[in-house]
Design goal:
By secondary structure, this protein is mostly beta strands. Helix content is 14%, strand content 46%. The chain has a single domain (28-147), classed as Jelly Rolls (Sandwich). The chain has two helices and eight strands; from the N terminus they run αβαβββββββ. Strands 1, 2, 3, 4, 5, 6, 7 and 8 form an eight-stranded antiparallel β-sheet that branches. A hairpin with a 6-residue loop joins β4 (100-105) and β5 (112-115). It comes from Sphingomonas telluris.
Amino acid sequence: MFNLKTMIATAAIAVAAASSFATPAAAGQCTTPGTSDLAKAPTMPKGVTDDVLSAISLGPEINVDGRQLRTRRLVVQPGGIVPLHSHKDRPALIYVISGSITEHSSACGAPIEHKAGDISREADGLSHYWENHGKVPAVLLSSDVFHG
């Protein structure tokens, strides 16, 4: 039969075990808060294809004239670059389908590695650029609210 000390010890072990699974570190997110100096960031694309898959005019849908919700497929070749750009007034979600890609963000003090299955939230005036340091193309889906 269990005594009180045994029950407390068992409960403590159960809580410790459960908490070790509670909130794992989110992949593809900034782990070094701060800002990056993007003064020498690339301004021209390299090794990138950017295809609009579909777009919806938001004027008739939700009274946001001059805006589109669009989804694009980007393929960034090894050594490729998506140059510095801003998400001021242009929120986006980027999903990494395959490969991996490195993001250099104005909102993070260190580069962010994104791998297949990661999603990146781009909003709040964020400026950034992406580089593929891998050996295979990085394939991304980008859904954004675009001035169209």
